[in-house]
Design brief:
Blueprint (H helix, E strand, L loop, with lengths): L6 H4 L2 H4 L6 E2 L31 H8 L10 E5 H13 L5 E6 L4 H9 L2 E6 L10 H7 L4 E7 L11 H14 L2 E5 L21 E6 L1 H4 L6 E5 L3 H15 L4 H12 L1 H25 L3 E2 L8 E2 L2 E2 L7 H10 L3 E2 L1 E2 L10 E4 L5 H17 L6
Parallel strand pairs: 1-12, 3-4, 3-5, 5-6, 6-7
Antiparallel strand pairs: 2-8, 7-8, 9-11, 10-14, 13-14
The structure holds pyridoxal-5'-phosphate.
């Protein structure tokens, strides 16, 4: 494995220092929740090794997201990131061919890259509304392809996918005997309602998700994967056991509590997301130097400075951070030019979001290249 730090992590707000940031538009979750909100008294909890697959009641709850899924199909992992790592390292070896959409949440690309896999990128474009086109995925699959990897709703664009497109991708993978990884970390935040859990659609499909983004619980590091291929889950469990034996009983107990609060909790979360989105929509409409493809899920969007506007991009990002104490996710976090920026609209307060968006506009204007 050839590890290197990903810019999205090395430059993340928590690594940069939350205390140095006034307007944090770089997050990809709703605001972080406190333990007190979950009302969890953990005083009696025995700090033992837990069930190696994850707390049974938690796995049952997760399985209830997909008809036909059973607790045994679910493996609780150290965040969705942990699931992605286990899947990539279990399924891929150096030289193995996989198809990955780009831009993407960086781990979906970086772990296969660290393995030395042969990556065929399907590059999504602004002009095509960031669509993950089943025909383009199918065209990238070869006889050697071992894995197709998509993220929906998508990070960093916040774009979803019609159910028919997901089913078309599943059908093509089935027809060609290729495994499909669907990173569903934003699934519950799809504005038009969630897509089916991919693992319910095919034994070749693996679903990945977590509580980090929708509920603002990244600090418990609890995610999961689901697959109806029992042999595969067993191999993934073997990988998990080699890394950590089991997950944290503390984290999983809190995660179960959060899941059980979901029905009461989620509507308020979605209302907050809609408010944030409306503020970004108003900002884009008011600033003629930026444009976007409006997201239809998740809590991030990926606007850009219009291509006909000449901006010193290094200066722009420097001014934004150093003079306005405002952070966004620059394009290079996603292997895209820095004229793109990921803006998270669910984490900051409404006031800081509006202020931060104004700062983006101001920093662009401070960085315009004067042409004669
Ligand atoms: C699409 C996607 N997948 C996975 C993750 C990993 O999140 P976590 O490990 O906190 O669940 C992220 C985090 O940004 C993400 O955006």
């Amino acid at each position: 494995m050839r590890y290197r730090r990903m810019p999205i992590e090395a430059e993340s707000p928590e690594e940069f220092g939350y205390d140095r940031i006034r307007c944090n538009l770089a997050e990809s979750s709703v605001a972080d929740a406190s333990l007190a909100l979950l009302g969890t008294d953990l005083g009696d909890l025995l700090l033992q090794y837990g069930d190696h697959r994850g707390l049974p009641a938690l796995r049952e709850h997760i399985a209830s997201d997909g008809p036909g899924l059973k607790a045994h199909d679910v493996l609780v992992t150290a965040g969705a990131a942990g699931a992605l790592f286990l899947i990539a390292t279990t399924l891929l070896q150096e030289g193995d061919h996989l198809v990955v959409v780009r831009p993407n949440y960086a781990t979906n690309i970086e772990t296969p890259r660290a393995i030395g896999a042969d990556i065929a990128f399907v590059d999504l474009t602004f002009e095509e509304g960031w669509r993950i086109d089943p025909a383009r995925i199918a065209a990238a699959v070869t006889d050697r392809t071992r894995l197709v990897s998509i993220t929906v709703p998508h990070n960093p664009t916040g774009r979803g996918m019609p159910e028919a497109d997901l089913r078309a991708i599943v059908a093509d993978c089935e027809a060609r005997g290729v495994r499909l990884l669907v990173d569903e970390t934003y699934r519950e935040m799809a504005f038009g309602g969630p897509l089916p859990v991919a693992a319910t659609l095919s034994e070749l499909a693996i679903s990945v998700s977590s509580l980090s983004k929708t509920y603002g619980l990244p600090g418990i590091r609890t995610g999961w994967l689901a697959s109806r291929d029992a042999d595969l889950v067993e191999r993934l469990l073997a990988a998990k056991e080699q890394v950590s034996i089991t997950g944290s009983i503390v984290d999983e107990t809190i995660a179960l509590r959060a899941r059980r609060m979901r029905d009461a909790w989620l509507p308020g979360i979605m209302a907050g997301i809609a408010e944030g989105l409306a503020l970004v929509r108003a900002w884009v409409a008011s600033d003629e130097l930026v444009e976007w493809v409006e997201p239809d899920g998740g809590v991030v969007c990926f606007p850009r400075i219009r291509p006909d506007v000449e901006v010193d991009l290094d200066l722009f990002h420097r001014v934004l951070v150093e003079e306005y104490a405002t952070v966004v996710g620059p394009g290079h976090w996603f292997e895209r030019p820095d004229s793109y920026m990921r803006i998270g609209y669910g984490w900051p307060t409404r006031e800081r979001l509006v202020e931060g968006l104004g700062n983006v506009s101001a920093a662009i204007r401070r960085s315009l290249v004067q042409t004669r």
